[in-house]
């Protein structure tokens, strides 16, 4: 602090000013001591430099009488008064620093809480985290958050921190902040403490900030919950369910829509009782993926279920579906492929009429390991051209399994290279001779998922069935 | 608080500041204020007078110095400094020791505030500044 | 600061210690000066008190020789050294306070940004706000945020602040923070400034905190967007569309699902060409509201559209729908009411066969202002009992309008009090004589919304139609 | 940095602190260090020695004082204070002038740090504390 030059300059000026003061003892001369001290502080000289300057001045006057000593005391005191100002400022600034540091701690706690609160997807979790944060960040005894019901059908929600109430004060100190979302009142966040507690303006500011961020998180969670409920419920309601048990028929299905968080795609399948005591088994693929395609699968399934009550020829049902797809209003046209089978289940065998509208032909796995396609290729449904469809009759005997599948099974690509195609499927099925339909479907699904490395680029559906083995067959 | 005496000093130059210091010191001696407190009072006057000569219009203002007595009979020196200057826009900042701008040394108004027993400031953009301070003769 | 007693005590002890030092000039005696000064600081005495104590000691020794003055200088210096420590601390703590205050400003900016960022529902808006905040909060020249594509089908996204690039430094100073969501890498947030800029550890901490909160907001927005897309797309695809134009028929529809953010409920309607050149008009209400009911409306509409291709008797179509509802797998049974009309549109008149499955009977508005129900009440569809349904033939002539509606129109309650019911509907329709179907539907909807004070408790659907007025009719 | 001389002083009582101050002052005078800096050096030694007598096991430790010279030929007095005490758990806090806990006066280690040109501390729970400080004879 300070350099020798400035220090020496100080000593000389101090000595001269002191000599003036000794001569006239005037306020003007004394004011010079104040000026010197103030300059020393501004030049960041040390208080020790002033002490040394004082002593060199004393050496210069070389007098020890009371009057001189008294004047010296006055002069030194005056020259140190600015140092005293700074000294007192130290204690004050230390308090400022402490308060700012406390504020930093609160704001950091708030920032951490913000991340945690916004990471919560349920309103309940947000409320509890907010109450806990409120209590912690203002060091209070208890915090409560309450939000109104969004809707007359819902209940209001509250959370308290700590969860269990103590008896508490009859007249506690309290501060609160309103929760608002998109211009509407959401609820209130309140903090209470013992009655002698005085909450600071900063505590209120922090609570308000917390209420604000909690409001946003609650609003987001409510919006998310609403859309998620709609999305989940619709997808689950539209998705084909488990296969019904059919006497004499063993059937299995595997169904995997592509896309994270998606439960329903453009692939579909169905197995249901047709009007005439027979059964219908079908698989299909709507052009495209995701929810747009999914809505069309509902149309396809419901249409074919209704048509099957009136119509036993597969080609007839598919023609009606073609018309229904063409009649769709609003949406731009959607194409669809379907493989439709009308089944008469007998004793150890299944006779089926089969039509394929633009769909890959199903494969029969024979007990000897041979794999053969059945049916005849037909036209895509829903397009401009009247579909060409052919009904083919097939009988599945003991140990034969028919595998219906969508193109997601045979067009598995990785880095633009087909890694599982028709050839691989046939080769795999050749190893499935004698296996029941569920095992066959399982093997196919496993192979496809492995080839896709867990990331499907298209929906995958597999429907496999055959006559149930009849234990008495060879005995009877 | 009863007023004992009063003197009004126009502040236009450094010499006027000396007059104010002297007047205050004379009153302080009359109250047998300790010498260290006399020094602190004089320093506080210098700092608020400096505020006038630095910031007020034409560097002009006035200082009123008088003796006061509180309800408990305690006596002290009161200094009122007034100017018609631009006023202080951000008072909190002017009094928080310059730490927000960094490197302040805590002189000026915040320094003066620390040296006296009571300190009050009335200011605002365009309305000038009035600083009132009191140093009691007996310590609390 | 300090009291007279302590001050006097200081003066006496100072004088005594100084006398000792004058006698032996030892380090031990000098150390006493340090101790006195330290005690004075701890007792919060003023530096002026030490100066005064020094001068009373000088008065006591009453000597002005060089040796004494030199010793006095040593002793005073030593006694003031602790004050110097504090003085230096002031400057240091002031810097600490300034830095803490700056940190407070940054954290407050971060808290404000957190609210703004989490209030944004699109990833693009979040990215721009994050880049702007990053640049502002660390006072840098430019900030860039980039996130990877979630899915091979999507593009990566970036945002820059300011949006336009300046030429910039060839080797700028830079800091960055990773964005991660649910354990996966999302992208990176980077800030650059002129090459001489030195970013502090605090700048890095702030950037990391910002990256963290942005990551959460981005993840939430992606999740929300996904669910919202599914919900929107499915609802829009399942929702019945606009009515097709039918030569000779004037028809209008009003449709309002209950519930905020919901686009599809349990009410439905349809108007489509039946198989035999005739048309089908229908309205229905699935038990319940919201997405659960909505999926069943798809089943109902698609089933009836398919059945209408084979079946012209309304009761036949409704029986098939009953069966389809009963066959539904997975879901617990859902009931449904439908009013189904098979229309033959002629010259200035419409002949219709009508069946009502549990649905309120439609009302005819006559040109003279009379309002009469038509059709015969039938049984709810989808329940355990085989429905009782009756086909009734009705002819609508010039100026007659048939109004089909769901119970949401006639069961408007407010505070458990019915405020708009069947009686009010009939009274309203009596004022609609001579109005075209669209005006009638409009009036009914307006009355229902007014009675509900804008908050529907049930879905509302209204389908009104009648023969198109034939201008040549009377001339021909 | 070349070592010129070295002296080891056991710190067990206030008398030992005086010895250390004296030794350091003698070296400082030999380097013609200004008297104000001599005082600051002695004060820094008192503060770190006080740290030993207050916190170390049995209040014991040792101080090494020697002359050092830096690469540019500048000479100074170096003081190394060691103890086998419990060590300092939260060093940052011990050095941040007590402002986090409020009301500290900035003496002790943070005070000593401010009075010298170089200050280094090596400590940790259970490993004792070593403080090294240097005061250069010529100002920077
Ligand atoms: Mn598809
Ligand atoms: Mn596909
Ligand atoms: Mn309903
Ligand atoms: Mn209803």
Description of the structure:
Chains B, D: It comes from Solirubrobacter ginsenosidimutans. Chains B, D: This is ATP-binding protein. Chains B, D: Residues 36-139 form the Histidine kinase/HSP90-like ATPase domain. The complex is a heterotetramer, with 2 copies of chain A (476 residues) and 2 copies of chain B (140 residues). With 476 residues, chain A is an alpha+beta fold. Helix content of chain A is 46%, strand content 21%. Chain A has 3 domains: 3-92, no CATH class; 120-233, Beta-Lactamase; 241-467, Phosphatase 2c, domain 1 (4-Layer Sandwich), CATH 3.60.40.10. Chain A contains 11 helices and 16 strands. Chain A has a 5-stranded antiparallel β-sheet with strand order 5-16-13-10-11. Chain A is elongated and about 135 Å long. The termini of chain A are far apart. Chain B has 140 residues and is an alpha+beta fold. Chain B has a single domain, classed as Histidine kinase-like ATPase, C-terminal domain (Heat Shock Protein 90, 2-Layer Sandwich). Helices cover 36% and strands 28% of the residues of chain B. Chain B is built from 4 helices and 6 strands; from the N terminus they run E-E-H-H-E-E-H-H-E-E. In chain B, strands 1, 2, 3, 4, 5 and 6 form a 6-stranded antiparallel β-sheet that branches. The longest helix of chain B has 21 residues, at 35-55. Mean pLDDT of chain B is 84; it is low at 99-103. The complex binds manganese (II) ion (MN) (4 copies). One manganese (II) ion binds at residues 266, 285-289, 293, 459 of chain C.
